[in-house]
Amino acid sequence: MTNTADTRIADSIRDAFIAALLVAVLGFFFLALRTDIAPGGLALSTRWGLWFTAIAIVFAVRLLLNLFVYRAPAGAPKPESGIGKMAHRLSGYSTVFGYVMFALAAALPFIVMALFPVQQRQYIDLAILIMTYIMLGWGLNVVVGFAGLLDLGYVAFYALGAYSFGLLAFYFDIGFWVALPLAGLLAAMWGIVLGFPVLRLRGDYFAIVTLAFGEIIRVVLINWSDFTGGPRGVSGIPKPTFFGLDFTRGEGGFADFFGLEFSTIHRFVYLYYIIFILAIITYFVTARLRQLPVGRAWEALREDDIACRSLGINIRNTKLTAFAISAMFGGFAGSFFATRQGYISPESFTFIESAIILAIVVLGGLGSQIGIVIASIVMIGGMEMLRNLGFLTQIFGPDFDPVQYRMLIFGLAMVLIMVWKPRGLVSTREPSAVLKEKKKIGADLIGQGEGHKA
Amino acid sequence: MIAAAEAMTTADRSDTNWDRNPILTVENLTMRFGGLVAIDNLSFNVGRGDITALIGPNGAGKTTVFNCVTGFYKPTEGRIVMRHGPGHQDEGVAAVTASSNKWGQTAEGAVYLLERMPDVEISQKAKVARTFQNIRLFSGMTALENLLVAQHNTLMVASSYTVGGLLGLPGYRRAHAEAIDKAAYWLERVDLIDRADDPAGDLPYGAQRRLEIARAMCTQPHLLCLDEPAAGLNPRESSALNDLIQYIRADHGVSVLLIEHDMGVVMEISDHIVVLDYGVKISDGDAQFVRTDPRVIAAYLGVDDEEIEEKPEIASLVVEALGEEAATEAGIAADGAPPPEAIAAQADSAAGLADAKAHPGTRPAGLDGAREGGPDRLTRINGIGPVNEKKLNGLGIWHFDQIGAWKKKEVEWVGSYLSFPGRIEREDWVGQAKVLARAAGKAKTTRKGKQGGGQ
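Above: the input entities. Below: the structure tokens describing the complete assembly.
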């Protein structure tokens, strides 16, 4: 017994030493050396104290972890820790959790106005952004989560929706509320058009072609300058009206009509409620579709397309409906984006947008709608929150600029979440129909569909 | 020659259900994958209300036939007719074949040409359902959901293609409740009602097989194709499966076509058995006919010795077909050394080919007995089993070099004599024999040299 304990201590020390050595090597350039701007070029200054402190901390923490935390033999399953349990519990009480979230979201602008009167505009704007991504996530979830088709070009439909409205407004002077359904329909139509050629593709090839479509749309928008305005984009897109009332100062405006004192915040609150209602519609439609035969066929397709064929399910139509519906919600969101910004250009629709939306869906757990809400808040909200990490300057010195480390910290957080929950925050699946008792289905049994197969 | 062989191996045609009232007719089906001929000019009938088994050694092309029937493969040649109405409906079938349609309505019911239809329509319209050799359930969905997915097309119509369902119209809600009732009925039938809300991937193997059959039945098929339903089941599950298949046939009037290796299942429940070997039909009839057909025995005994030992059901077939004595002599149960004439006579009678002149080609010249040093072990040639070895010995073929000397005519004659034309070329007995003869020659000289040196 003592013998094994001795070897364990020896192993722990060796491991801690290796970790410390690693930090020493890596930290030498980042911590120990430092370039300062000096007259006539750069000057090198050294910070040995900081370097040694870092090495010492890593050695000590690593040793303590080895001795007291990593006690279980390697490879043995570790019990889920704190946040894991919480997320599991959240999914367990998803109905209650959903209601609370819904109530919070519905009252959010007023809560913000009451709590943060100074930063209200900034926070409501952030809430609008998060809501937009939630809606996009729910839209993309139809294709990626339900039907299991890895779509890397979802931003194309977002762009189509935005440009549909932008150009309709520019050429035909059409307002937001008329353009909204048209934008959705146009995007859905393009979803079918782009869906046809990729129907026969599987796995990686499917993902690559959707990625290409996303880029094609953007490149067309840039180069077709006569029609789309090219890189200059489309500006002067009308703001949404409230039953014909503009959010302007003076006669006939919203504030004037209701006898309120004019404030720019009214328009933001209104925009928030528009995207909130759009997102809620997206939620209910997609949640309902999941329980209908078409939604079950999507999920069956994800599980096993050959079995689907043997059961007489038309795979082509099933995939196309998934594409069209997903694209339609992307179009709605795009159209909202255009009216919120008042100006659109192809720059807003780069691949990184597709990647962020996909990351939200994957992080939330494929197919999980509540997971997407959490993931959107974490990703979009977290990324914005990292802009104001003033307190970090107190730790790392006054020269530390948190904005520069934003993406680094964020990327690290993403990696950690995926290590700890590889199938997303909410990885269980709720059955779409129940005979007696509703049971959650564990992630290990659920297929991930095309593009995820080894 | 093929036609003659066909006539010879097929049981009396006049009075079988499958020839009087076929639900499915496969005619001249050929499937080529590049240069490989997986199925060669195959024709058979599946009787309405029959349980028909498709058997044959591994690689005989059984699953390929299934994939052609269910539309997963498009056959290279041939016609596959599915009839919803009784009888042959020859005129209706001819009319549809002449037209460019995939199916047509006749007075008795619709006829479908499956080789023209994609897999989706075969399930949806022609009402042919299938299961898979490697179970293909939707493992992340519950047992109930699996059965609801199978009712997709009915539910799609009931939900007015999603619109009605989205609005929650009463018509859809009623259809949904009916679909659940139907799923519950089948879950009850396959004894899985208590596990209805468990994911299919969590069920034990036997239960997954049953669930797959239930799922196929939820598409309301007229013909159910089961690909090795008893594979991996224990004897108790296997007998429960027999009951289930017979129940499906009796209470739902569904005809069943099954591929099976478990001879116990095949012999017990099949009304009609079709035997394939290398993509060619070698026998077609009821269980009694097939189990005594010398071609079937030859096909199964052509396989390696180990395989026979592994498959007692084949051994028992041989025993029944040849009689205890011959089987014993054939080296299955014991290694005896009876006089060659006796074996030759027995082998001849077993093959039903007493008249050697009836075969095309030339009979290879034989020896009266093995040369000095004893006969070669002909079973070392891949493709020659103990029975064929005895038969060849009966012809006076004792040594590798004798087989190595065969020309085309001899090969043709022996192929016909042993009841598997074409296989000798395919397995290259002659080439194998040449190599073995050379090796044997070398061994002999070295042995002699050593002996000489010793003395």
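Note for the figure: Chain B touches chain A through 48 residues (CB under 8 Å).
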